[in-house]
Design goal:
Length: 226
Amino acid sequence: MFEYLERQKKLTLNQWKIIATANLGDMLDFFDFFLIGYVLAFILKEWQLTYGQSAVILISAGFGAVPGAWFWGWMGDKIGRRKVFMITALNVALATGVMFFTPDPGGWIPGWIFLSFFRFVVGFGNAGLIAVDIPLVQEFVPAYKRGWVTGLTTTLLPAGNILGAVSGAYLAPVIGWRGLFLVGLTPALLVLAIRYWVPESPRFLLRTGRLEEARKSLAWALQVDP
């Protein structure tokens, strides 16, 4: 079955769909990851944040990424790459969206602590999505194309940062900085694309004894009869 894959000379439309979905996922993922930098520009003076408080808000996602990469990578081996791809997309989107409810500094919990906690959760999912979508793409392409395809999958990461900057400049004055977090719910729509475009990894299916599913998954990607 995989010998057929290794003999492939040209990627099919369905393989490109998988690559495009992973690319879109990484871009939206990093949009949410970098969004906080542009939100801070609006609340820094208003909330009179100290340097330390600002630093905690910014670095908390990085701290979340460490256990997130380990946990979701492990889960990808346990329950499948496709499932984890969808779960981590929701993880990032929902953790960003809930920050719309960030309390003011004098609220029931200091706003900077609320932001720091959910930024940790964003980082937890962010690293997990990257940890699982690249192996998923690699397992649908021939070995000799994996380096190139992996590089291609990450090319839109800077676009996520650019989207954050554009949103901060043009959307925030209209919808407010809290509204930017609602825009951060966009990656949740990615789940629909994954559900309809991306099958489970044939290598994962084969390793778990689901031979016929693996055959159908790879046949779909290669656009051949199972």
